Amino acid sequence: MPLRLPDRLPAIDILKRENIFVMDNSRAHKQDIRPLRIAILNLMPLKITTETDLVRLLSNTPLQLEISFMKLKSHTPKHTPVEHMMMFYKEFAEMKTEKYDGMIVTGAPVEIMPFEEVSYWDEVKEIFNWAAKNVTSTLYICWAAQAGLYHFYGVPKYELDKKMFGIFPTEALKPELPIFRGFDDVFSMPQSRHTEVLRKDIEGVEALKIVAESVESGVSIVMARGGREFFITGHLEYAPNTLDDEYKRDKGKRSDVDIPLHYYRNNDPQQGIFVTWRAHANLLFANWINYYVYQETPYNINDIK
What we know:
Blueprint: E1 3-5, H1 10-17, E2 22-24, H2 25-28, E3 36-41, H3 47-58, E4 65-71, H4 82-88, E5 89-91, H5 92-95, E6 100-105, H6 121-134, E7 135-141, H7 143-153, E8 158-172, E9 186-196, H8 199-203, E10 208-214, E11 218-224, E12 229-232, H9 242-250, H10 278-294
Helix pairs in contact: 1-3
GO molecular function, one term: homoserine O-succinyltransferase activity
GO biological process, one term: L-methionine biosynthetic process from homoserine via O-succinyl-L-homoserine and cystathionine
Subcellular location: Cytoplasm
């Protein structure tokens, strides 16, 4: 089954060229099926790129999904056309009276700053609190994962000496969980961050469970409330070229960014990218949609609590 997306969203044409089945709202209205409602709070600077990355993964499910993009009132993006934001995004105030089966909150380029100094922190906290009561399950990614762990559970973040950058072997610590159904013993996760959360702090919170971890990059996935919240420190949604683009952007400009590990063939940029994470990325998002959203959300969406 396809995803249901806003008419004329740029990701539609991109994904159709990849032979991924998507439909716009005009066609979806003709089908008598209740789609799962998924809200995406996109805090990444390159909105269209992130939209496409997430929609690509969400398409790998037999369920019809209705995707709604959320924006902040307290922040104006600098790298996305105003017309795009006006056409495809709604402010939280327009969405907070509704309920959603699932939600994704992305990373943001503010991770070095203390949370309280982020200009939109108050609005983000309000959205987090709303999601806890009005969304069946929420994925918090990268900065959003650290922000959610801090806001809900008081888990601090720590600045790294060097950027955690590359593709890191990761182990599912609780492979029996549905989120890891079909996973191998080890899977690869892209990481691109200047801060980290620590196992010792998370273990001190009874409500949190570390469910995936890497020897090299540390805590990878934390689960809370039986799967109503997942905090993912990395970027399984990243396209193959994303880390390469980031490396070329920062090369020679930042002293705390080295070549991304385990990413290029033989760790040599001249030999090209070695993609090792896409299969598990598709599987994780499909498992989340199926087992933690579709199987758990009430038939009447207004019954979500």
